[in-house]
Amino acid sequence: MRNLILLISSLTLLACSSSHQGLGLAGWEEGELLRENKTNDRAYVQRAQAPILRENQAKAKSNATKRARLLAIDRAAREFLSRDAYNRNHDKIWQAIRRRPNLYVKQTKNYRSGPLDENRLYGISAGYLIDRTAIAQLLQKQLKILNQSHSSILVLVETPGTQDLKALGYRVADLEAGLVSGLSAQLHGAGFQVMDYQNLLVSLKQNPAIGNAANKLSPQDYFELASQTSGAASGPLYTKALPHLKGLAKVVVKLNLEQLSYSNNQLHISMSATAVNIATVSGGSIAQSRFRVLRHGGAKAEPSAMIAASISDLLVEMNQAFLPKIYKEFNVVNQAPGKLLPYRLTLMGFDKEEVGRMIKALKGAEDKDFRYIGQSLLGLREEYPIVEIDLRYGGRPAQLSDRVTKIADTADLSAMPPLVDEGLLDLVLREE
User: What angle do CA 344, 15, 7 make, to 5 degrees?
Assistant: First the structure.
């Protein structure tokens, strides 16, 4: 009987300890996720928490909501960048998104929010639909961290199989322009920048190492260069033009009009479309499709009108069968480990001297994976200061909890190890 009482007492103490420290967010379930309506939209679920001071839950909810929104935007920016690029510029990115966060959030959905940990904290779980195009523009144009290739597509057109179009009231140049402009409109609508062969030549000629030699290569040559296959890839311009090309676009698309023939009021078009990711080492193909259009016209049908209508048909088919493969390539995110995530550590229940020792110890523990950013005094609770400390750490929350516990020991603080929930970047260190 005594053993049973001891067991019950131990379980009660454990439950009280868990209630004292537990955040409660781990058990929250999100509802239906926000729908990604456009190619360059991405939906995130983000959790955050903030201390409740003077029983002001509304203020704590506002603080938690603002932090969750910034964390979601930062996630979107982080996915564009390599580990080194993000770690060098995380402060610059954070300050930029703090100034005008609404520019990057298209839609918000609050899944659940409420007080936690015996009304010490307020937690929120929310969904955010982030505009990745706006994020890319921030990183490219404003912060100069990302070059334009990360959202750019080069479109090249070859027309070897076309008969003389003059007799049909059409020109090859009109045909190429119709394909490029129509495809560009679809890609622009999805949030991408588009370049054609003429834009490419202008850019290459501005490179002193290339100049007018850019004219020596045809669209097919440049596509081989992008594919890193035979032909132009082994030519004298290879070492000069390829790095320039990689700085302009991530994906190169070649439209090859293999056949265009007209006879007896029938128009037949056959075209292949190929896309390669020039950002990869091997220049791998990411999409290949073939399209055929057969259009019948009446005795009074104008061949030029039939050609224009057939181009529209080709574009519709490409939008259904070809472009989604390209969109998927751009949606690949950079998940490289070691990025310094924006953690926040809240100190509760320590006096002013203990807080000072902890901050000094955190600063002394800095290394390439752990950085002290700054702190702010939120207020007092029971005469003890509530301090939020912003950290950057390149590991998981559980690893940071262990590290913070060790740092607290070196600062001679009697503290409980912070409990963590995966996906939550907010930790609380409380007096034991």
Answer: 145
